[in-house]
Input
Amino acid sequence: MDKNKYLGGQRQRRQFRVRKGIRGSTERPRLSVFRSHRNLACQIIDDSTGKTLVAVGTKDKEVRGNLPYGGNKAAAQQIGKLLAEKAIAAGIKQVAFDRGHYKYHGRVAALADAAREAGLGF
Output
């Protein structure tokens, strides 16, 4: 049995389970999180039109200079705060949080808490 194939299947099932109840609309778009070892990125997506409304990541020029490392909780907090500020400026106040296949723990939770503190509702 191929270990990578098995783990990929588990990850995919977990992602489908999390996303089946979350559907971004014009009134409440979906906040999707991507986490790698060194970086973190998130975007607010309107699934009815299939467009990304706001996107922020640790590789962005405005963030890259302020962060020594993009794969820790401090970076996640900064990304969450910046995302909420951009979303509110774009007129988005409520989102549906999509953690994907990641646990709501560590960097993902720090990003969500920072976004909530900055005024984004979910």
Summary: DSSP finds four helices and four strands in the chain. The first helix runs from residue 3 to 19. The two ends are 40 Å apart (CA to CA). Residues 3-117 form a domain with the Nucleotidyltransferase; domain 5 fold (CATH 3.30.420.100).
